[in-house]
From TrEMBL:
Transmembrane segments: none annotated. Gene3D superfamilies: Periplasmic binding protein-like II, Winged helix-like DNA-binding domain superfamily/Winged helix DNA-binding domain. Residues 1-58 form the HTH lysR-type domain. It comes from Caballeronia udeis. Keywords: DNA-binding, Transcription, Transcription regulation. The lineage of its organism: Bacteria, Pseudomonadati, Pseudomonadota, Betaproteobacteria, Burkholderiales. Belongs to the LysR transcriptional regulatory family. This is DNA-binding transcriptional LysR family regulator. GO terms for molecular function: DNA binding. Pfam families: HTH_1, LysR_substrate.
Length: 302
C-alpha cells in the first residue's frame, strides 16, 4: 500500500477506466492493472466490480477511496511541512460556484504570480459538500457559506468536528424575481412558488427556504447547475432565485429583473484543525486584504 499504488487507485476510481487512467498517469495499461490487482490482494477485498471493460467501485472500494485520499493528502502535507522555506506542492481548494467566479480569480492570480511552484487545484460544490470534503481530506481547504441552520452553522460547530474557519468575503444575497413582479418585503409577498437553486447542500438554498417560510404551499425546487441557468429560469417568468450581488455584477448585460436584498452572508475559509503548510499560508497572504475586513476566528493549534 505505497504512495504510487494509492495514486493509481485514486485515478482509476475517478476515471472508471484502466485505459483512461493509464493515459492520464503516463503508464502502460498492464502496469495499472497489475498495481490494482496487487492492492486488492493486499487488502483482501475487490475494490472494483468488473463487467467486461466496464468498471464500477465496489462498496469496499468506495470506503477505501476516502482513506486513500486522506493518506495521499497527509503525505503531501508532510512533504510541504518538512520543506517550509518556500511555498510549493499542491493546494486543493474547494469553493462555491459564486466564490470561484466572482471572488477568487484576483487573489489566486496574485498567488500564482508570487509563488509559481504552488499547484492550485480548484473544484466547486455546494457548501455542505465542501465542508464534508475538507473533513474527509478530499480538499485541503474550502470557501463555504455556513448553513443558517444545521450541524455546522458557527465557528464552534466547526471546531467540534475538527475544522477551523474564518470569514473572508461578505456577500449581499439578492432575491431575484421575474420582470413585472410586484414589490417584495417578505416571503408571503412572492407570487411565484418555484425556486431555481443548486442541489441540496447549498446554504443559499436553505436560506431561501427559510425566508419563504413553511406556512404556505411548499416550494417547487428546480435544481440547476449554474447561476446563468438560474437567471434564465427567472427571466422566463417561472422561478425566483437567490443570487449573490457579486455574481450579477459580473454580467455585462444583466437582465432587467426585480431584486430584493434578503441577507448578508459571510463566505468562510475552512480547513482542518492543525493543517499548516507554506502553500496554505501563501493563500491566506493573498486573501489578507479581505480577511482583515472581517472579524477573525482564532486558529486553534493541533
Amino acid at each position: 500500500m505505497d504512495h504510487t499504488s494509492l495514486d493509481i487507485f485514486r485515478v482509476v476510481a475517478a476515471e472508471l477506466s484502466v485505459t483512461r487512467a493509464a493515459k492520464r498517469l503516463g503508464r502502460v495499461q498492464s502496469n495499472v492493472t497489475t498495481r490494482i490487482q496487487q492492492l486488492e490482494e493486499e487488502l483482501g477485498v475487490p475494490l472494483f466490480r468488473r463487467d467486461g471493460n466496464r468498471l464500477t467501485l465496489s462498496a469496499e472500494g468506495d470506503r477505501f477511496l476516502g482513506y486513500a485520499n486522506r493518506m495521499l493528502a497527509l503525505a503531501d502535507e508532510a512533504r510541504q511541512v518538512l520543506s517550509p522555506q518556500a511555498p510549493s506542492g499542491t493546494l486543493r481548494i474547494g469553493a462555491m460556484e459564486s466564490t470561484a467566479a466572482a471572488r477568487l480569480p484576483g487573489p489566486l492570480a496574485a498567488l500564482h504570480v508570487q509563488y509559481p511552484e504552488v499547484q492550485l487545484r480548484i473544484s466547486t460544490a455546494p457548501s455542505r459538500q465542501l465542508l464534508e470534503q475538507v473533513r474527509s481530506g478530499l480538499v485541503d481547504c474550502a470557501f463555504a457559506a455556513l448553513p443558517p441552520c444545521g450541524d455546522m452553522a458557527s465557528a464552534s460547530d466547526l471546531e467540534a468536528v475538527g475544522l477551523i474557519g474564518e470569514p473572508v468575503f461578505r456577500e449581499e444575497i439578492l432575491l431575484v424575481l421575474p420582470p413585472g413582479h410586484g414589490a417584495v418585503r417578505q416571503g408571503s409577498d412572492i407570487t411565484v412558488r418555484s425556486l431555481a437553486a443548486f442541489a441540496d447542500g447549498c446554504s443559499y438554498r436553505v436560506l431561501a427556504e427559510e425566508w419563504f417560510g413553511h406556512d404556505r404551499t411548499p416550494l417547487d425546487i428546480q435544481e440547476v447547475g449554474s447561476y446563468h441557468s438560474m437567471l434564465t429560469c427567472v427571466a422566463a417568468g417561472g422561478c425566483v432565485s437567490l443570487v449573490p450581488r457579486s455574481v450579477l455584477d459580473l454580467l455585462r448585460d444583466p437582465p432587467a429583473l426585480r431584486t430584493h436584498v434578503v441577507a448578508k452572508v459571510d463566505t468562510w475559509l475552512v480547513h482542518r484543525n492543525g493543517y499548516e503548510t507554506a502553500a496554505f499560508d501563501a493563500l491566506r497572504e493573498a486573501l489578507a486584504p479581505f480577511i482583515s475586513k472581517q472579524p477573525v476566528v482564532k486558529r486553534k493549534s493541533s
